[in-house]
Amino acid sequence: MDRPFVIGNWKMNLSLSKSAALARAMAEEKPPERATVVLCPSFPFIAAVAETVEGTHIKVGAQNAAAEEKGAYTGEVSAGMLKELGCHYVIIGHSERRQHAGENNEMIKRKLTLANHYGLVPILCVGEKMEERQTGQWENVIAHQLTVAEGLPLAANFLIVAYEPVWAIGSGQTVSSDDARLAARTIRALLLELLGATVSQKQCAVIYGGSVTAANVKMFVGQDLMDGVLVGASSIDAHEFLGIINALNK
Ligand code: PGA
Fold it and tell me: Has this prediction a pTM greater than 0.85?
């Protein structure tokens, strides 16, 4: 992919003033247009961040969306609302939500379908736990998690699959370059089966997430590797996040 995705998942880490300051710092730096840069703040700060980066090529995403379209779902935020706020992307099925909010494939499929219906680019997270890797299960785990994308009517939309091994998130551990290559190839083959040749080649991207830094990002992205990265901890520091973007543009 000529324009790697560099997506920052700020998680529940930044206050309103810190979110706005980080968005401002990113907007002022004008990261190279050869990367697709997406910032994913917490729900209440999406509008402020979207306003701050307006007029730049930086896009905004959400960290989650409801599994229902509208109605009596107290505390939920729908895909339609996120679109109204200026989101272009939404993270779906992050392992932290699978773990802490009990999200399963059935809910994730509904979220994915709704995000797509409202023209948000879903960033579907998949990845195995350490014991699943150690027992040779990673491929089966990913294949099962990816079934939610089967027959997704993408029309003109795009789908990003983020391969995020659970053991690599926030741990300082990452996959090797060879494992990233193998995971990218495996996921692309699964997408081909699920969505067909044209869609899987032209409307899908596969990215890596898990302890990505400016120093290691080149291990994961490139020809035969991943199409970009989903970044947690290193995305809440403007200098480090810009370092990741710049490393991919060298
Ligand atoms: P990390 O998080 O970069 O802090 O490991 C990645 C993620 O959870 O998306």
Answer: yes
